[in-house]
Design brief:
Length: 546
């Protein structure tokens, strides 16, 4: 039972409130006021999805008071998030927890999303290509689901949610489980079906705690229910680190504790004539971004101008999704450069990126000879825009996992100003070998054409041979089943974390340099991960634009 329309939203003294009834549960969503500019910057990927299983159903005022008294309101506001109260439903009516269906969590996950389009705690699933809305969802990162149970609600979690299950995950049906469970006042023995579900126990019996300690890899206990300040402290010191994408529990390093600065920013630029995003036709519009850099990088006595990597996330994703999932924040931390990821970049053009660059140059000491661009999926297409339209600013680029036809921009429209055919740009391109989308030359003509464009642009020794010999019609006889021909050099690198091999075809230019690298990743679908991006940085960082 999906939410087909925007729910009726009630304004409260400190936020907004709405509710919706699904087949097996009712959700009451309280979205507290926040100082964060959530309409421009998307914190959804790092925000806890606070799912409260209260002892008894609460009315609106009771739920808001409850959230405030427990510290949930303050925690949600710190991430531009919400507090979602769950009540069980049977035969269309709210029922007692003891009569609830055992798979409520699965239905909650199916009706939850994060997305760049959201309002009042509701995701508005705007389809960029079809120009339509695919539905409405509770805004919440399912991979950061924090189940918080009290009394009978805690009993329900303990008996039904401490295990893995198959459900509607980020990329179709997958293995799911909570990121953390917080249990208050249990009256039943917990049924721990998986040892990788972190648990916080508040005021529970010695027997229950002994069982948790023996079966859970990640567990802390407190003798009593915490104060709001203690609850928030436990979230930051324990629960915040856990994330579960598809199946395995992942533990995020605390990069800020290790000295990485994460700095939000908003810049206003002139809207270019080719903008076909939400700001089309306006005079000016705002661009949100996050800057990642090591503490002291710009203000030490011997500080020098630093390299800049512009990062573009995939369609429907966010800065934090890209910087975390693709590992660029960790790479910036390791190699001491400035990473700036652009929020909702489909509303901005390559021309507007050039104006943003000028703004960033005034704010940060940037080495203008070492500006790089990279992106995943639609962000890869935006990176191609930079190569096509403004090559003179780039020392190198790493578009990943997507391309439009040569000469088209990120909106699929022809570039009216004409495209770059004379200024070489070192390119590292990568795609998954089992992706369902067209990323590699053997899959679709536009991918083959893009490879030919790069080889010609970079004066590759094999460019003429490629253009003459490689066609989709003769791909059954290709010497390289993915790219058509082999590179002048081939390098492979094993990614132990993914049990995958990155194979890099390296093409030599007429000046003897390797300016074009085309890489494929075994066993990978439409995805972009740190191992590949590390290799992309190692390649790009060799080059400067004088």
């Amino acid at each position: 039972m999906k939410m087909e329309t925007m729910p009726e939203v009630t304004k409260t003294e400190n936020g907004v409130f709405w509710k919706n009834t699904y087949e097996k549960f009712e959700a009451q969503v309280y979205v507290p006021k926040t100082e964060l500019p959530g309409d421009i910057l998307n914190y959804g990927f790092i925000a806890p999805y606070l799912l409260v299983f209260a002892d008894k159903p609460l009315q609106q005022n009771e739920a808001i008071s409850f959230a405030r008294a427990k510290g949930l309101e303050k925690l949600a506001a710190a991430f531009d998030s919400s507090v979602v109260f769950i009540s069980p439903v049977a035969d269309g009516k709210i029922c007692e927890w003891k009569n609830a269906e055992p798979d409520i969590l699965s239905e909650i996950i199916s009706n939850s999303r994060i997305h760049q389009y959201h309002k009042d705690g509701v995701v508005i699933a705007n389809n960029f290509f079809r120009h339509s809305i695919d539905g409405y969802y509770i805004r919440g990162a399912i991979f950061r689901a924090v189940l918080i149970g009290y009394g009978e609600g805690a009993d329900y979690i303990a008996e039904n949610c401490l295990h893995h299950f198959e459900g509607d995950g980020l990329w179709g049906r997958s293995d799911l489980a909570p990121a953390t469970c917080i249990l208050n006042g249990l009256t039943v023995a917990p049924e721990v079906g998986a040892d990788d579900i972190p648990v916080i126990s508040y005021g529970n019996s010695d027997d229950a705690n002994a069982l948790f300690e023996s079966r859970c890899k990640h567990f802390i206990k407190r003798a009593r229910e915490p104060s709001p300040e203690e609850f928030i402290s436990d979230y930051y010191s324990f629960a915040k680190q856990f994330r579960r994408m598809n199946g395995p529990l992942q533990i995020d390093p605390d990069l800020e504790k290790d000295g990485l600065v994460i700095e939000p920013g908003i810049a206003e630029v002139k809207t270019s004539s080719d903008n076909c995003g939400d700001d089309k036709g306006t005079k000016n519009h705002k661009i949100g971004y996050f800057a990642f850099y090591n503490k002291g990088l710009f203000d030490s006595p011997d500080a020098k101008p630093v390299p800049l990597v512009l990062g573009f996330h995939g369609g429907g994703d966010s800065c934090f999704f890209f910087s975390t999932m693709a590992g660029w924040a960790k790479i910036a931390h390791r190699h001491n450069f400035l990473l700036v990821t652009i929020e909702n970049h489909l509303n901005s053009t390559a021309t507007e990126m050039i104006e943003l660059l000028e703004i960033l140059k005034k704010k940060y000491s940037i080495d203008t000879t070492r500006i790089y661009a990279t992106g995943f999926s639609m962000g890869g297409c935006k990176t191609w825009d930079m190569i096509q339209e403004y090559p003179e600013v780039l020392a190198a680029a790493a578009p990943m996992d997507a391309t439009f036809d040569v000469g088209c921009n990120v909106y699929g429209n022809k570039v009216e100003k004409g495209i770059n055919t004379t200024v070489p740009v070192p390119v590292f391109y990568a795609g998954g070998e089992v992706t369902p989308l067209p990323e590699l030359p053997f899959q679709e003509q536009k991918c083959l054409d893009r490879m030919a464009y790069v080889l010609l642009l970079n004066n590759a020794e094999l460019a003429e041979r490629y253009e003459q010999e490689v066609t989709l019609e003769n791909k059954d006889t290709w010497e390289n089943k993915i790219w058509g021909i082999n590179g002048d050099e081939v390098e492979q690198s094993y990614d132990e974390s993914r049990d995958a091999t990155l194979t890099m075809q390296k093409f030599r230019s007429t000046d003897g340099r390797i300016l074009s690298v085309f890489a494929s990743i075994s066993g990978q679908g439409h995805d972009c991960r740190e191992h590949t991006c590390e290799h992309a940085w190692q390649f790009m960082s060799q080059f400067t634009r004088q």
